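Protein 1 of 2
SEQ + STRUCT:
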Amino acid sequence: MSKTILITGAASGFGKIAAFELAKKGHKVIATTQIYPQMSDLIREAKEQGIDVVVDKLDVTNTRDIDYIHKKYDIDILISNAGIMEGGPIAEQPMELIRSMFEVNVFGGLQLAQGFIKKFIDQKKSGKIVFTTSMGGLWTVPYVAAYCASKHAMESIAEGLKTELAAFNIKIATCNPGVFGTGFNDRGVDSIFRWYNPTINFTPPSVFEDTAESLANQLDPQSMADCIVDVALDENSNFRNVHPKETEDFVKQLQVDAWTAKS
């Protein structure tokens, strides 16, 4: 049965791949981008590939955009995928960068979800919301701790929604990517050097070089996008979906180890 699915952050990465895959399966997809130039690029790319998607502008930090989208579309599934990463040691990271991540990754995602939840309940519809969080929502990666904090917040929000909305038959799930080569992680590392100054900051620059090296063998994002698609369409999906399995096992072990970690 065809569903109407809105996905945020569809200009690139998992969002774009998942939007196109869902459209190929015959679903009505509203693929949203933060700014108009991304919207134009996505329209052109979909047309070139013969993929039928509706493309619209949605900056999740812009209340007017959110209100417009809520009024314009009736949907069955929301895939809340938009996110940003600003890297750097949290002891020195400028507060405005941390706030900007929370505005997009937490407050924007929640405000968008709230409006569609209200519509689901008003329409007596059993909708579903899938949040793209991160493996960083379940453990803290050094030098992107603030980003991980925003994803931890979304994990908690999603879990709260799952419990609180169960009586309304609204399903909630999270998808937690490992390290995939969408360019997102690389730009997160790049972002450090827009403010970091070795003559002022006390964190040695060598640690960032090590972080960059750890991104050398990132995974193909197609499999993560497929995971998001499967979770969105599965009426009985798990709440938490860490991918790949190796990352799930790694995170589980870290959570066990946390109980005996020293200060």
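Protein 2 of 2
SEQ + STRUCT:
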Amino acid sequence: MAASTLTEVARLAGVSPATASRVLNGSARKPGKDIAERVRQAADSLSYIPNAQAQGLAKSSSGLIGLIVHDIADPYFAAIARGVQDAARDQRKMVLLATTGGAPAEEREAVAAFAARRADSIVIAGSRSSRPEDGDDNAELAAELDRYCRNGGQVAVVGHPVVGATAMEGYHVVAVPNQELAGALAARLAENWDGDFVIVGGPEGLLTSDDRVRGFQEGLAKAGRAPAEILRTSFNRSGGYEAGLKLAARIKAGRAEDGGGSGRKLCIFAVNDVMAIGASAALRAEGLRIPRDATIAGFDDIETLRDFRPALSTVRLPLEDIGRLATRATAPGAGNSGGQEEDTVPPVSGEVTLRRSTEAA
């Protein structure tokens, strides 16, 4: 059976289609109470489903928030998404989700799709890339966001601004002090560790990873320690596992050189928790134990760590609060840049949390 139409509702209620639309689509122009009730009864009897796009035009609001993340299966993004959903619920809005794998070309497609659906705002979470191979795609993403903001859209970006974006009005940044917090972690670990440090980082040019690598090196320098070696790998669990296998081989080789002794242990800093989990799994698969054979720390304090053993040292970020902050920044009346400069939401705070995985340090 075909869906009922607005014209059929209007005919049954004895009103014009325009009047029926004003009643059912939420227009500011309201007909008389008896007419409105007659239209609603007609709609109920016909099981009429209002057109969301028509309602959006009538109200000048679609009631939709677009959320763009790299990977919703990653607990980091899942936690931010929960915060976005909570804030959206408070605003009586629905969240549309796009998972892009971190590619700016796919992010541009998601922005265009959300804009076509008249989303009131868009939240983008995920590391920005300054790699040369992403240059053209960054430019297209920036242009798409600029166009969306010029047409009244609101955008909030977690971490760094989108590379090349020039939109001012309606553009918000939720800054995360990755560099400072990584430095604080390095300082704490260096207090009681006289061995070598290794950083497991993402590909060079991923700004979040680069900030954390830079901050950790600065923290070591302030503590009077030599720079850590950096292993570059994929910015995910698989990348951490791959790095963990290389480190396991190095630890075993050190033991062999030591004539079967304990060798020189490593203190490993993985720039996010899922990489730390991957590295730990690789060490375990090679018969090594944490913290007996190596110590390790991550960054983010994702919810998955509640069940991870040994308990992982990390930097705790209020991930759900970050999602809420980003969403609230785009709400009507939340303030904007006034057309002068991008609106930077007050930065979130974090804290170093040392647990058993770095006990030897």
